[in-house]
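User: Good morning. I'm curious how protoporphyrin IX containing FE would be positioned relative to this chain. Could you predict the structure with it bound?
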Amino acid sequence: MGQYATRFPINVIVDMLGLDRADHGRFHVWYTSMIDFLGNLSQDPEIAAAGLRTRDELAAYMIPIIQDRRAHPGDDLLSVLCTAEIDGTRMSDEDIKAFVSLLLAAGGETTDKAIAGLFRNLLAHPEQLAAVREDRTLIPAAFAETLRFTPPVHMIFRQPCEDVEVSGGTIPAGATVTCLIGAANRDESRYADPDTFNIFRADLTTGSAFSAAADHLAFALGRHFCVGALLAKTEVEVGVNDLLDAFPTMAFAGGEVPAESGVFTRGPGSLRVRLTRRA
Ligand code: HEM
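Assistant: Good morning! Here's the predicted structure, ligand included:
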């Protein structure tokens, strides 16, 4: 995970923004510190201090680049953000810097956990791994089933505008509800044999799995549906193809299926894989 899954999505975001590729390593450090900060539920003071340092370092790095990109826009996402205008309103330098942080957090940890989860699930089912290796058009199905079976984001929060009846109870208007995506994705009234990972299942539609019409909930639903769903699909397709091409055999290094951890976001804490390089 440290050598591949946590790096690839961040490198993609840095490149899309048109930032210096020599700074991939720097962004990896900032990204790790941001994720540690967001997950610092026990309020470890060192993690908190490192997160605040990262906020200042990222601002000192981004603001001059944003100002320069406003003056000299190029063919990159950062230039689009700098020049976009809706009803006469543009984003401030601070807004754009904050959006870059959001992209790193929302597009990094999720995709990182998705790539690790997909390999964990396939390595735990070698016959399904062999099928995907043989027929790469199965990668989207393997990704969709991974999103259903082991969604990287487990919780989202909502506040109903009006009273809502659910399962015989009433959620009052204005209450904060913690929706558990992982539980919804294993609803036995929706999916046959929901606790089984099966990329060939007939009750999960791969064609719509990366759009707002998805029948799993890993990208949430409605107006905050993940804006990066199609980017995640592309990254996973490229990443999985590359790794399968590079390594003709793969197996868990310890023999055991690595455990998942995390409550808000969830995935394998580490994924040690014994790889054989192509001769
Ligand atoms: C497998 C990978 C991914 C998963 C599982 C995932 C999951 C989610 C979920 C559950 C939400 C909704 C949060 C809510 O409603 O409270 C969300 C929103 C969002 N995602 Fe993703 N995401 C993934 C990849 C990405 C990527 C690659 C990007 C961009 C680089 C991205 C950017 C965003 C943004 C900006 C939002 C906020 C959208 C809004 O509030 O309108 N995500 N994502």
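The pocket of protoporphyrin IX containing FE is lined by residues 13, 102-103, 106-107, 110-111, 114, 152-153, 156, 218-220, 224, 226-228, 231-232 (CB under 6 Å). The CA atoms of residues 190 and 230 lie 24 Å apart.
Let me know if you'd like a different ligand tried.
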